[in-house]
Write a structure and sequence with these properties.
Blueprint: E1 2-7, E2 15-20, H1 26-37, E3 43-48, E4 56-60, H2 63-76, E5 81-86, H3 96-100, E6 107-112, E7 116-122, E8 127-134, H4 144-156
Antiparallel strand pairs: 1-7, 2-5, 2-6, 3-4, 3-5, 7-8
């Protein structure tokens, strides 16, 4: 067995979600969950098929996000994994619960805009996702000024009253 690290390739501010599912029907069901959660959402979805033809299956509403999803899914190439890239102005926070409720979705590994590396185990059979490196190491503990800044930011963007 070998450990492999695959860096997610994307523009800096682009959010994405990486997960695992268990059935080819996931492509349609994840698509439906996303457009139901936010009408007009811009996204690209790619799914790594683990049996049969073993293709990267895909869907979406935005050509650039679809291309990112296809490229990254092919690089990860881990059975039954999926990746969703969200267009500008769309955030995982608004779709995660809908994705988690899709019957085929087994797990969400991450939802972030941070630089991310996917850690894979590669065997003679194939690849499996062990986890992710999301962002950078912590530098310290917030103080009162940072707490105030965090509270203000959440209110400024409308997530708290």
């Amino acid at each position: 067995m070998q450990l492999v690290s695959v860096k997610i390739q994307k523009p800096d501010a682009t959010n994405f979600i990486l997960g695992q599912t268990h059935f080819i029907k996931s492509v349609e069901d994840i698509h439906e969950a996303l457009v139901t959660a936010i009408p007009g959402i811009k996204f690209g979805l790619a799914f790594c098929e683990a049996s049969g033809k073993r293709l990267v299956r895909w869907s979406g509403t935005d050509a650039a996000m679809i291309e990112l999803a296809q490229k990254n899914a092919a690089a990860i190439s881990a059975g039954h994994s999926f990746v969703v890239f969200l267009g500008d102005g769309f955030y995982p926070l608004n779709v995660l619960n809908m994705l988690k409720m899709v019957p085929e979705v087994c797990r969400i590994f991450c939802a972030t805009a941070n630089p991310t590396e996917v850690i894979l185990a590669e065997t003679e059979q194939g690849r499996g996702i062990l986890g992710v490196v999301d962002g950078f190491p912590t530098k310290g503990v917030e103080d009162d000024a940072e707490i105030k800044r965090r509270h203000g930011f959440l209110r400024q963007i409308g997530y708290k009253l």
